[in-house]
Amino acid sequence: MEHPADDYDRVEFVESMVNLSRTPAGRARLNADGALAGVLCRLSSSTAPVLISRLRLVRNLCADEPANQDAFVESGGVDRLASVFLTGLPVSTEVVRTVSQVLGNVASAGEAHRAAVWARFFPVWFRKIAEMYDPAVCNSLCMVLDTCCSATGGRRRLGELCDAGRGLPIVLDIVYTMSRGCHKEEYFYWLLGKACMEGIYFTRVFQGLSSTIILDGSGGVDCTYKKFSNVQVFLLETLSDYLTGWPGYLDSISKHFALSVLQVLKEASSVVDASSQSNYVSPTCWLGTDILKKQVQDDIRKQDGISLLLQQCVVDECWPLLREWATLSVRYLLDGNLENQYKVAELEQKEPVITPEISRMGLRVEVDQESQRQKIVNASSVSIKVCCTMAYRLVQAICIGSTGDRESREVRNSESICIEYLSASFKSLES
Fold it and tell me: Which terms under GO biological process does the entry name (predicted)?
């Protein structure tokens, strides 16, 4: 049954059609009435009150409905959606989100549909959508981008999306937006998984999130940095969550990604300034332990990465889980790899390192000949004054807690050493 043209201008009428379109039977009824064609031709002239209702109707009609998806593309629906941004009127986040959902539904129909969406919206309108910096909008945008970068033609479009001169700003804006601690939907993980873990673009995205970016003439990204930003750590945590949540995708992890993460770990170990932890954080708390397959295990050994990982098996006050992640990484690194196991077995215990802090306490580190474990011993005789001073500093550090000055924190962080030192010192005085 055809409806009068004026009906499509009434919000109440369009909303009734939206409710009807939520079920397969309702969509079949609306299809018979030609609802899609009737609402599409009115999109560009829609006023604010009825626009969102019309978009929702189009979205529902194109959800898993091949005939409507085809009709949408054939009737110029992609251009009509783009016209929403050309009216000159303010566009709400809800409108933009619904537009993205329509595009995602249409793009899922096949290569011709993905190509039509990509040709009209990439990169200009996708960039405009990402620049709204709204988490809900970005989640819907990820649905469109992930769908367009899948199946036939997907690899080429993924390359365009991660090209520094074209689509990379879109990806970076999405990551910045989602790093605010909001809920992340599966399409966000899948998009980053395609670009960073299955593809070869992890380094480009990671460097693009640095505070210092230099674009070279070839369109690539060359980045020099001495700090690691919170957003970079967020990217690593997101990819770690991806591996945990979708373990079935482990077989598609690229060698490029695994070695790139190892390179980040190397750089972090050499350039992170511990004194600026409040503004920047080290990404060494994360390592893709699940990606260490045989080939990657061998490459890490050849690049002297085993000792680097072993150096991370320490207690880090800023990253409590660093030791656990590093230990698990070493386990995966050695699992089933005899060459790596022999490499570790060949390691010999070196002379203990005596740091300046330990020396100032009048201590030295020795290796017990029986247990082969390190122990703290007195380096020289001590006085009651030294013992009392150290006891005072220890009590002061414990009382001050995390708000103490740097010197007190050093003592607090070495609390067990101080206690052992005091005990040995007082015994020496008693004798």
Answer: cell division
Strands in 162-284 per DSSP E: 214-215, 221-222
What pTM value is reported for the model? 0.65
Query: Is there a contact between 61 and 27 (Cβ–Cβ < 8 Å)?
Result: yes
Say which CATH class 1-121 falls into. Answer: mainly alpha
**259: Cα separation from own chain's centroid:** 17
Residues 334, 335, 337: CA angle, nearest 5 degrees = 65
C-alpha 144/C-alpha 96 separation (Å) is 12
Q: Do residues 243 and 193 touch, judged by C-beta distance below 8 A?
A: no
Task: For the chain, give every domain's residue range.
Answer: 1-121, 132-253, 356-430
Give residue for tokens 């690049």.
303
Closest by Cα among 138, 217, 203 to 170: 138
Structure tokens at 130: 């990402």
SS3 296: helix
For the stretch 13-50, pLDDT in tens is 899 999 999 999 999 999 888 889 989 988 877 777 88
| Helix H or strand E encompassing 288 | none
Burial of 185 (0-12, 13-18, 19+ CB in 10 A): middle
The alpha helices in 111-162, defined as continuous H runs, are 111-121, 124-130, 135-148, 154-161
Residue the block writes with tokens 């649905």: 143
Amino acid at 83: S
